[in-house]
Structure formats: C-alpha cells, structure tokens
Amino acid sequence: MVAEEVKSVEVYEVGPTLTFSMGPQHPGTGHFRMVITVLGDTVVRCDPDPGFVHRGEEKMCEYKTWITNIPHLERPAILDAAGMVYPYVLAVERLMGVEPPERAKYLRVIMAELQRICSHLYWLGLMGVFAGHATMYMWCFGDREYLVDLTQLIGGQRITHSYFVPGGVRNDAPAKVPKELVKEFRRYYRMMLGRDYGGEVPEDFRRYALAVCEFFDTRLDEYYRMLLDSSIFIYRTKGVGVLRREDAVSLGVVGPVLRGSGVRSDTRIDEPYDAYPYIKFNVPTMDGCDSYSRMMVGYYEMKESVRIIEQAIEQMPDGPVKLKQHPVSIRVPAGEVFASAEAARGQCSFYIRSDGTDRPYRVKICSPSFRNLIALPHLIRDVRVADIPIIYWSLNYWPVECDR
Amino acid sequence: MGIAQAIKRTLMPVYSGLKHVFLKPYTVKWPYEKVPNLPEEGYRFDPKAGIGYPGSKGRHVLYMEKCTGCGSCDLTCQNIAEAITMTHGFDVLIVLDEGCYESFKRSMPGIVEAVEALVGSFSAEPGRIEYNSLSSFFWAPTDTRQVTKVEGGYEIRLNREPIFDARAVEVLHQKVYPAVEKLKAAGWELRKLDAATESASVELSRQDFTFNVLVRKIEMGYKQNRRSLFPSIDYGRCVMCGFCVDACPFQALEMTGEFEISSTSRRELVYTPTMLAKRPEDFNVTGVPPELNMIERMRMIFRRLVW
C-alpha cells in the first residue's frame, strides 16, 4: 500500500525519494510508527501507523464489572490516569442518576489537576530532550516528585491510584503529612529557590499542599527562563508545524493543540463538571499556531492548574467523600450515556451503554491523542527531517492512549 | 526582536542553569538512600462506614485471625488482575506401614532409594537458597526425628513449611510427580488413590514394598475459618489498586507501604498467607542500609550532614 503511493510520488517528478519508518521502537514515547517519505532533507509525506499498543480496553470493559473497570482504564495514559478515568466515572454517575458529595468533587478536581501538571511536565521535559536540551528533562522530573508525592498522599499511589469511583472518591485526603517529607521539602525548597520557606512548613495537609503549589509556581518561572524563553528553543520551534486556526477546527483536534491554534475550547469551561464551575481560572490560548504556541499553552496550563489546586484546597468543604454503596459491586440501570472531561491532552469522551447488569454492555472511548493524530500528516509535510520530533511531540501524542 | 532581547535570551538560560552547578546534587541514590515520601500508614477500608482511609498502596498484610476465607477478595481480583487465589496449606507425607518402616530402619536398599528420592525433591524448596548443605545429613535413613508414629504406621513429613496451593492435586503434580518419574524408571509402580481438593494420595509399590504418599490439608485452627482457606497473592500480577481491601467485609486485608518486593524469580513473587501475615517492620526507613561497607557508610552520612 505504502510502496504504491511512493511510486505515485515518483511519477509526479519530485525526484528520487526515500521512504523509511520512524519507529515502531519508541520514537520518543511509546510504540508508534511514522512512514516518512523524504526528498533530500525535506519530508514529502508522512503516514502515521498507530496500533502497535492496542490493548482492547473497550472490549475488556465488557467483561469486568463497573468498579473493577477502573484500574485497567487508567492504564492507557498512566501519567494522566485521573483524566482518563474521569469521564468514565462521570458517565456511570449520570447513568445511576447520582451526584457525588461536594467534598469528593473538590478532591477529584485536585487529583485531576495534579495529574495534568505531572503529564504536562513530562511533555515539557521530553520537549526539551527532543530540542536537544536534556537539562529540562531532569528539572521537570526532579520537581515532579513533590507533586507525585501529593498524589500518593491522597490516592496512595504515585500514578495509577484507582482513586475515583462512581459516587465519589475512595478515601479522604489525609490530615497530616509525614514529618520527614516536610523536612525534605524544606531542604529542597531552600536549595532550588535559594531562600527559606516563609515560616515553618506545616505538617497540616492543606497548608503543605499550598506550600508545594507556591514552590512549583516559582519553579515554572525558572523553566520559562531556562527553556521556553531561550533563543535556541525559539528558533527550533517557532514557525515549525503550523496548524492554522481553520484547519485545527476542521480537523477536529482537541486540547492544547486546538488552543495553540487560537481556539478557546476547554471542556472544563464549555461543559463544566464537578467543582469546576466554582473555580475561577483562565483557558490559555496562543495565536502562533506553531509548535512553540502549543508548548506555551501547555506551560500556561500548568500555571492555571496550580491556581485551580490552590482554590480547590481553600474552598474544599468538610463532609463525606463517597455515597453509601457497595464498595466493589454496584448495579447500574439500563440506558446509554455520553460524558466527557478535559484530560491532560484534551477532551476525553466515553460513550457507555448499560443493559442493567453488573457490567457495561458497550464502552466506547474517544481519547484525545486519537483525535490529535489526524493533524500529524498535515503538519509533517514540507518540513526538515530534524523538525519531525519537535512537531510530533508538540502534539503531545501518547500512543497507548490513542490505541487504547 | 532587539539585540538586547537576543542577548538576554541567550545568556539567561545559561545563567539559570549555571546556578545549579554550585548546588548539591539532588539525585537520591536509591536503594542506598531513601526518600521519605510515603504516607505513614497503609491503605485500609472500613466496611461499616463504607469509606477507605488514605495511605500507601503497597504490598498487603493479612490478618489471619480475622480472615474467614469467604473469597470476596479473590472474586474482586478475578475481574482486575487475577492475582489472588484462595489457598489451603498442605503437608506432604510419606506413610509407611510397620513392615516397610522396619525395612527402612534396617536400610533395605529399595525402600531407602524411594524415600531418598522423594526427600531429595523437597530438600531445596523453591524461593529459598539452601545455605546449609549439611541439612541433607539429617535426612539420613537412620534419622527418625522427622518421623511420627500414627495409627497403623509411620509418617515422614517432607516439607518444612506448609505448601500453599488451591488444590491438593496441584501439590501432587508439582512436588511429588517429578520424583516419582525417577522412581518409575527404577521399577516402582504408581497407583492413584485419591485426588480431591483437600487431600490427595498415591500408592507406590515395587515387589514387596508398598507405601503411600499423602498430601494432607493443614488445619490452621482458626475459629472463624474452619476450612483453613486463605488468600495468596501473586505480586507478578497485582496492580496494587486496593479493591480487594475494599471488598473484604472483615477488615482482614490491609495494604502497607512496602514496595520493594522485586525478586529474581517468578515464583518468589507469590506471597503465601503466612508471608502476608507478617507485617513489614518499618517501610519508611531513611537510614543508611546495613549492607554497606564502612567507606560508603561514611559517605552517605556525610552527604546527609552537609545538607
């Protein structure tokens, strides 16, 4: 199939071309192949070939019960487990016709935003690697530790926590933070920012989380000076992989890719769910439409996520965090439902049909990476070979999430 | 873009990176150093309130005095990772009648060979390293310490620790049959007597010797768990989601912060109920590990002091 198309390219007298595969052994993130045709150093054509990490998540959902689906649904995007499970949980709740308690809504928002930051840090760090700037990767992963620790304090695990369940969350946030961790954080704070934390770092969970947010916000400014405002990075990414506004809309891309093309679209604002209506935040957009704009949208989103976490922690009411229900076996009435939530890579949607038994009849996942993949052949065209990694990763494409 | 901005954009990254040359490295040399980032408790679930308590989701701890063997955890895990199996503890015994035992005591070559072959297959139990090669010394044919007298004969217990498995036949297949294959070549004949869930036995015979190999369930003696059925967890499969803890109606399962459960063989990752019942002592240790030598120790302590 591919060979024939290459021949047709040759017929149109574009000169001697060369076709090769980029991947499928991990071209950056996950197993994914791009069949690339080049003419000299210019890419003529790019055929993305997903499917190497297809796991049959949708089929698997039909064989597991409503609650036991949660651990495996986290796996497609482990860095963003909350974003992936969020729409599933919302959909099941809508089918059941229940509303989670207020506190659970805020806890979910905190968890989702923490994971959004962690996912974006990975994006930013690897963007540094692809642009030949390995320091960024180390910095991102060093600072990510304290956010992951917060995730672990709340959810018990660093990334795949199985924290959300239909009807709330599985446990409340802890009251106290381990003393040793607080000590370590103070030391790290002093080392990184060159000044002491104002006053004693508290062991109280709320105030500790706020301290971490404040620390991370300051570090983000440093990232801007280090990578995003450096001339090398700007030369590598500005004007590379331009996805015009009207193209972005007609291709149907989502998330930071869409917002990087100047469209203000965010599920958290458009169809607010859980505690997002009570929280004030901006949806950053950039008009550059290029790789730089997309990365900057990701950067500003991290800043906004910090603001969201701070507000959520301050506004969080007391009370129960879960409805009274059986812990592992719930029954969902028959019906069909569609729900979407804003995952780190964009809008993630679930369509679920239930026939009233203890497991779903059909689950359809529409993941953000799959919707952004369509832009790849349009972007990798008439660019240099050296720009391929930059453009590829500026879409924040995650093969496992795409293949499901 | 002015010249000043270009210079700023070139020099500022260098400056912000260069600062870090003069800082202490913040890499943590795990496992020699540990980060105290774990919650102080393990995840547990209160079935009455229907809510979990925050904590680490590491390896489980099983309270055998609470477990009723209902299998709720097994049922839940079958939908997630299939890591939990409900298991009985088994003993593998050689049952000799009076005549055989007398011949065995007098070191008659046929019977001694058979017993030694069976004992040999248990001398190195999987998952454990045999440090003491002398241990086989105690299995010399004249050693009668392992032998208990029962009604109508004598029993030799082959395993040192209980063997946990779902069915007795599996124990027979995995533990006894490899040795029996060797015996068959030496002219022994095998006859199956009983192959049930809770007990299994075979009869081995050659000429005038006939004895039984019996796999027998161990009664643990817990009042609430008369069947002596407990969960074993395969950490090669477990995803640490903690839904088994939620599913347990008796708070018999909890999770701890222990996460360093890697091993060099697949079998060692299967934790038996007795292994699960042991609580990890202190999973949030931050001190210098004891296996380091003096110089490394001093370096680690020095690093800590300087910070």
TrEMBL record, chain A:
Species classification: Archaea, Nitrososphaerota, Candidatus Wolframiiraptoraceae, Candidatus Terraquivivens
Name of the protein in its database record: NADH dehydrogenase subunit D
Domain NADH-quinone oxidoreductase subunit D: residue ranges: 132-189, 200-328, 330-404
SUPFAM superfamilies: HydB/Nqo4-like
PROSITE patterns in the record: COMPLEX1_49K
Keywords for the protein's UniProt record, in alphabetical order: NAD, Translocase, Transport
Short name of any one Pfam family annotated for the protein: Complex1_49kDa
Family in the record: Belongs to the complex I 49 kDa subunit family.
Keyword match DNA-binding: no
An annotated Gene Ontology molecular function: oxidoreductase activity, acting on NAD(P)H
Source species: Candidatus Terraquivivens tikiterensis
Automatic annotation (TrEMBL), chain B:
Keyword annotations of the record: 4Fe-4S, Iron, Iron-sulfur, Metal-binding, Repeat
One Pfam assignment: Fer4
GO biological process per UniProt: aerobic respiration
Source organism superkingdom: Archaea
Gene3D superfamilies tied to this protein: 3.30.70.3270
Alphabetized InterPro entries for the sequence: 4Fe4S_Fe-S-bd, 4Fe4S_Fe_S_CS, NADH_quinone_OxRdtase_chainI
Domain 4Fe-4S ferredoxin-type: 58-89, 229-258
Lineage: Archaea, Nitrososphaerota, Candidatus Wolframiiraptoraceae, Candidatus Terraquivivens
One Gene Ontology CC term in the entry: membrane
UniProt-recorded name of the protein: 4Fe-4S ferredoxin-type domain-containing protein
GO terms, molecular function: 4 iron, 4 sulfur cluster binding; metal ion binding; NADH dehydrogenase activity
Coiled-coil portions: none
Species in which this protein is naturally found: Candidatus Terraquivivens tikiterensis
